[in-house]
């Protein structure tokens, strides 16, 4: 980045300094928002400035970042002035309200809600799968649904070698998918049940502690809930395969923050488990976890806090000669949301697809 400086002789000179970016987190107080804050620090994202935005209810609170306390501001019409990049994780209605204003202000938005995912003008990106799609953005890039991201990272390397003909998924989804308050609700329910009390429900329609139930999103006329259809439609868009046959059953389970998925993949020809292991052991964003003698495979407890999607229990489907079974676990808050968004931002930086902050520096 060429920055104009003033030399001791009062001449203008150009000095090449690393590019840095003015970033805002919209929805900074939520589970994903706070994870975004940690990741920007841990991954040393090139920041010129960082702004934390949330609703009026959270304005004035502070969050720690790199040894300092940053004050949360109420999002407003002026919030995006002078901002280069917005990481949004405040829900679909909030994104629909504010992201057009982000674009109008000249910034790029990476949105973690479902608001723009299926918009044909908005790229839906998993960096390990379709990084090239990010270059087509018109100001907004959509972050896929958490279950879709985790599945795509594991399935795409196999699909590249031999295209998947049909995909059947069953998900076991943690409380974190419904936010920080849902995680606290499940903890409170567990305490209540262990003390012989009736658990209270506010976020979920039913108690989640010591229980499970089909995903609590609206059900369509075909009997599929919204979460299941997200997996179907989003995977087709990310893979560039509009006719890919996919079906899913999504279930809420009493786990805090990592999702698990049982995946069945049907191919046109035999795909050996050993070949699949070889491919996945070298795939970006994947960690192969298998100890058949110990019956040890990916677990949500061990996936929590990790960047990688843990994949294992890869085996031949005994009901179909050209099908494979696999099991995966991944941190819903991290790779399923915040990490994928930051990786998209890093991709934009690497490809020089964000206009960086400019400054005059006097020497």
Structure description:
The protein is of the alpha/beta class and 363 residues long. It has 2 domains: 2-144 and 338-362, Rossmann fold (3-Layer(aba) Sandwich); 147-332, Dihydrodipicolinate Reductase, domain 2. It has 8 helices and 17 strands. A 7-stranded mixed sheet has the order 5-6-4-3-7-8-9, sandwiched between helices. A 7-stranded mixed sheet has the order 11-12-10-13-16-15-14. α1 (31-42) crosses α8 (334-350). The longest helix is centred in the last third of the chain and has 17 residues, at 334-350. It starts with a strand and ends with a strand. Residues 1-16 and 358-363 have low confidence and may be disordered.
Looking at the structure, what is the overall shape?
globular
Helix/strand order = EEEHEEEEHEEHEHEHEEHEHEEHE
Query: Helix/strand/pairing class, anyone?
Result: alpha/beta
Task: Provide the residue-averaged pLDDT.
Answer: 93
What's the domain count? 2
For CATH, the homologous superfamily of the largest domain is named as Dihydrodipicolinate Reductase, domain 2
CATH topology of the largest domain: the name is Dihydrodipicolinate Reductase, domain 2
Fraction of helical residues: 25-40%
Summed up, the helix count is 8
Give the strand order, joined by hyphens, for the main sheet.
5-6-4-3-7-8-9
Q: Which key terms come to mind for this protein?
A:
globular; single chain; 363 residues; seven-stranded mixed sheet; 2 domains
Protein topology:
Blueprint: E1 2-6, E2 12-16, E3 21-26, H1 31-42, E4 47-54, E5 62-65, E6 68-74, E7 85-88, H2 92-104, E8 108-111, E9 140-142, H3 146-161, E10 164-173, H4 180-194, E11 213-214, H5 226-239, E12 245-252, E13 258-267, H6 273-281, E14 286-288, H7 300-303, E15 309-316, E16 323-331, H8 334-350, E17 361-362
Parallel strand pairs: 1-17, 3-4, 3-7, 4-6, 7-8, 8-9, 10-12, 14-15
Antiparallel strand pairs: 1-2, 5-6, 10-13, 11-12, 13-16, 15-16
Helix pairs in contact: 1-8, 3-5, 3-8
């Amino acid at each position: 980045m060429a920055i104009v400086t003033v030399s001791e002789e009062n001449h203008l000179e150009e000095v090449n300094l690393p590019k840095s970016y003015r970033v805002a987190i919209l929805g900074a107080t939520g589970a994903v928002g706070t994870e975004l804050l940690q990741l920007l620090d841990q991954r040393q994202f090139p920041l010129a400035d960082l702004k934390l935005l949330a609703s009026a209810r959270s304005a004035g609170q502070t969050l720690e970042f790199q040894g300092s306390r940053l004050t949360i501001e109420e999002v407003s019409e002026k919030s995006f002035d002078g901002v280069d990049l917005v990481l949004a994780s405040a829900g679909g209605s909030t994104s629909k309200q504010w992201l057009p204003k982000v674009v109008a202000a000249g910034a790029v938005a990476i949105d973690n809600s479902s608001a723009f995912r299926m918009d044909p003008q908005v790229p839906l990106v998993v960096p390990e799968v379709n990084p090239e799609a990010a270059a087509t953005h018109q100001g907004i890039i959509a972050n896929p649904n958490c279950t879709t991201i985790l599945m795509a990272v594991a399935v795409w390397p196999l699909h590249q070698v031999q295209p998947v003909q049909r995909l059947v998924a069953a998900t076991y989804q943690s409380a974190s998918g419904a936010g920080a308050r849902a995680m606290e609700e499940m903890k409170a329910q567990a305490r209540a049940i262990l003390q012989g009390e009736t658990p209270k429900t506010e976020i979920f329609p039913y108690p989640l502690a010591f229980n499970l139930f089909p995903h609590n999103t609206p059900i369509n006329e075909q009997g599929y809930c919204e979460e299941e259809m997200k997996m179907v439609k989003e995977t087709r868009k990310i893979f560039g395969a509009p006719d890919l046959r996919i079906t899913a059953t999504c279930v809420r389970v009493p786990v805090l923050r990592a999702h698990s998925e049982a995946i069945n993949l049907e191919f046109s020809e035999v795909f050996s488990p050993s070949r699949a292991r070889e491919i996945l052991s070298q795939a970006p964003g994947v960690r192969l976890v298998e100890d058949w003698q110990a019956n040890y495979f990916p677990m949500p407890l061990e996936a929590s806090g990790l960047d990688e999607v843990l994949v294992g229990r890869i085996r031949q489907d005994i009901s179909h000669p050209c099908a494979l079974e696999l099991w995966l676990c991944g941190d819903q808050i991290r790779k399923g949301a915040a990490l994928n968004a930051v990786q998209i931002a890093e991709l934009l930086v690497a490809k020089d697809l964000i206009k960086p902050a400019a400054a005059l520096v006097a020497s």
